[in-house]
Write a structure and sequence with these properties.
Layout lengths: L5 H12 L5 H17 L16 H14 L10 H16 L3
Length: 98
C-alpha cells in the first residue's frame, strides 16, 4: 500500500477546485474528514469495507459545518465539496494499491 502523502493530497485538492489555499487551510479540511471517520467508527480496523461506506454528501455536510464554525478559515463554501471529493479520490487511489 502506498503511504498517504499530505503534500500530494493538498496539491490535488487545490487543483480540483482551482484554488491556492495555504497548506494549513487544506490540512484543516483533511483533519475534518478524518474526524468524521473517527466519529462514525470508520477507523475501526475490525470493520470491513462494506461496513464503513463513505458518503460524500455526509462528509461534505460535516466539513461545511466545521468550516463555518472556524471563523478564521479561508476555505470558500463553494469549494468544500470539490476539496472533499479530491481527498476521497486520493484515498481511493491509495487503496487500489493494496
Amino acid at each position: 500500500m502506498k503511504e498517504y502523502d499530505e503534500t500530494l493530497a493538498i496539491k490535488r485538492m487545490n487543483k480540483a477546485v482551482g484554488a491556492d489555499y495555504a497548506d494549513d487551510e487544506v490540512l484543516n479540511v483533511i483533519d475534518m474528514i478524518w474526524d468524521y471517520y473517527e466519529q462514525n467508527g470508520m477507523l475501526d480496523p475490525s470493520l470491513g469495507d462494506d461496513d464503513a461506506s463513505t458518503e460524500l454528501a455526509d462528509i461534505v455536510e460535516y466539513v461545511t459545518r466545521m468550516v463555518k464554525k472556524d471563523r478564521r478559515s479561508q476555505i470558500q463554501p463553494e469549494h468544500i465539496e470539490g476539496l472533499v471529493a479530491a481527498e476521497l479520490a486520493y484515498e481511493a487511489e491509495l487503496a487500489d494499491f493494496d
